[in-house]
Design brief:
Keywords: Methyltransferase, S-adenosyl-L-methionine, Transferase. This is O-methyltransferase. It comes from Streptomyces griseus subsp. griseus (strain JCM 4626 / CBS 651.72 / NBRC 13350 / KCC S-0626 / ISP 5235). This protein is of the alpha/beta class. It is built from 17 helices and 12 strands. Strand 7, helix 15 and strand 8 form a beta-alpha-beta unit. It is globular and about 65 Å long. The model has no long low-confidence stretch (mean pLDDT 92).
């Protein structure tokens, strides 16, 4: 290759790299627009209306009572996001990604997607710069109360949040029971366990233990129906309470899944100390959450960092490193024993601790 050809090749590679960089930045700049398009589609029920077949834009607009041309433009935006395909002009099908946004699809993510595209979840993000300057949540500024207080005041939103958390837990719940020896325990206490998605999965896989599901009345609202559907209502006791005030006695394994990241270190230590007050010396504590690496991996973009900002903006908690968990365990009267990653694509890890 001549020097001229090498220069042309170098210029071509440079132009390609520059184009890819600009494309990546453009995708981020337009990201909020994509979120709003998705949220609108979910609220209108677009994916459920299209279902497993093909539907023309004008027919969809007629069934939704929306403007035909504007509906077509929304559908094409969704196709541009690879949630729909347009096999011929004006006709649309759901893609594999669009399918999991149907309520009747196995492994549906529709409740989770609805929750995280809801204005209640998004409005605090408009003041992210304030959170970065102050280190404080902005949800309270916008709504005049904290996130969980707002849920208590809006039962329908609370139920939607519970279902979103259940959907977000399912992959982890399918995996966790096979990566820890739960069968050696007699009584598992799931602190803040919501509708029991994780506890039910563990008890289905391990026949020996019994379970206690501990949460607020709002958190437990959907639990009886789920446990009855799973045939586990006879093996699980529901206890209503506040983990900032106490923890149920009598367990030899205590579980905290997606609880610790909701709170600052001081409040997390309170939760852990209440568990330490009742756990036997031979008992174990499992914290199931993402664990941040010491530095951000250059080759693995990870939504856990956006989750960390969401904790900052909306609830005041944060995601943590292994060292952070070790310090937190010490403050709560525990000693960190191990951190076990769950297999990909799961981003959660099992943090195990014992009473100190």
């Amino acid at each position: 290759m001549t020097a001229h050809h090498e220069q042309v090749a170098d210029n071509s590679r440079g132009a390609t790299a520059d184009w890819q960089a600009r494309k990546a930045v453009s995708r981020l700049v337009l990201g909020q627009m994509a979120t709003q398009a998705l949220g609108t589609a979910l609220r209108l029920g677009v994916f459920d209306r299209i279902g497993t077949g093909e539907l023309r834009a004008e027919a969809l607009a007629g069934s939704l009572g929306t403007h035909p041309r504007a509906t077509l433009r929304l559908l094409r935006a969704l196709a541009g996001l690879q949630l729909l395909s347009e096999p011929e002009p004006g006709a649309f099908r759901t893609t594999a990604a669009g399918n999991v946004l149907r309520a009747d699809a196995p492994g549906t993510m529709v409740a989770m997607a609805r929750m995280f595209t809801d204005p209640v979840m998004l409005r605090g993000w408009d003041l992210l710069d304030e959170s970065v300057r102050t280190g404080e949540t902005t949800f309270d500024t916008v709504f005049g109360t904290d996130f969980f207080g707002h849920l208590r005041e809006h039962p329908e939103l609370s139920a939607a949040f519970n279902e979103a958390m259940s959907q977000g837990t399912r992959l982890t719940a399918e995996t966790v029971p096979h990566h820890y020896d739960f069968g050696r325990f007699q009584r598992l206490v799931d602190i803040g366990g919501g509708d029991g998605t994780l506890l039910a999965s563990i008890l289905r896989a391990h026949q020996e233990p019994r379970g206690v599901l501990f949460d607020t009345a709002e958190g437990l609202a959907q639990a009886p129906r789920r446990l009855a559907r799973e045939g586990l209502d006879g093996r699980v006791t529901l206890e209503t309470g506040d983990f900032f005030a106490s923890a149920p006695a009598g367990g030899d394994l205590y579980l905290l899944k997606s609880i610790i990241h909701d709170w600052d270190d001081a409040r997390c230590a309170v939760i852990l100390r209440h568990i330490r007050d009742v756990i036997p010396d031979h008992g174990s504590l499992l914290i199931v959450e993402p664990v941040l690496p010491a530095t951000v991996p250059a080759d693995r973009p990870d939504n856990v960092y956006l989750s960390d900002l969401n904790m900052l903006v909306n609830v005041g908690g944060r995601e943590r490193t292994a060292d952070d968990f070790a310090a937190l365990c010490t403050a709560g009267g525990f000693a960190l024993r191990s951190v076990t990653p769950l297999p990909a694509p799961n981003t959660f890890q099992i943090v195990e601790a014992s009473p100190a």
